[in-house]
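Many introductory courses stop at the sequence. We go one step further.
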Amino acid sequence: MSNNSIEIKIDNNIAWIYLNRPDVFNSFNREMALSLQAKLDDCAVDRNVRAIVITGNGKAFCAGQDLKEVTTPELNPGFRKILEEHYNPIIQKIRTIEKPIIAAVNGVAAGAGANIALACDIVVATEHASFIQAFSKIGLVPDSGGTFFLPRLIGFQRASALMMLGDKVSAAQALVMGMIYKEYPTATFEEEVQALAETLAAMPTKAIGLTKRLLNQSINNSLEQQLTLESDLQIEASSSYDYNEGVTAFVEKRKPEFKGE
């Protein structure tokens, strides 16, 4: 995309994707949504990328939809297009890219911004971050997979209350609820996320991708179906370079050097 609403930096097998509209708390317009999709597509096929971090520039992670876009007639794509062409494809890409994706929530994550974060494989947050299901405040319903992921993360009762009341949830509260993996001090947030991403990027990417596929399918599969899928994907994993390297390194009592293959 020919804009700078999304920035990307690839280093040490990690793709850092920055939501870059800090003047509007990284809220989404059409340009930014399509640009994020393009960057995710690039990361999916780039063999040099073995872990992805999504974060925000400035004080916010993402405030959701840019309301200026939907209240300006000449800019408004309409809600069907916004959902079917903007947010739904983003969520689908996050879940189907067979590489670990970290949401590094550096500030407020509201509405679609919160739900995009919760769709990621691992969610970490700075101590000053917050999560808000802001939809009910303006007469809308949760979207971007929120009604799918949030009840599975924190339970039906809490998810129902947060979505209906629109309460702000601090990072500390989100951690206790099981909404996020870890909360980090603001002063060391970037370093902590970097260390986490480096750990994931150095791991057997093939196996992590297959694990992600198993987790996706587990939501709808019966136990019998899931056991069969585990068997099939374990056979696939056991034919990988990284499996052979992992076993060899274990026998030789050394640290494995995985290639992600």
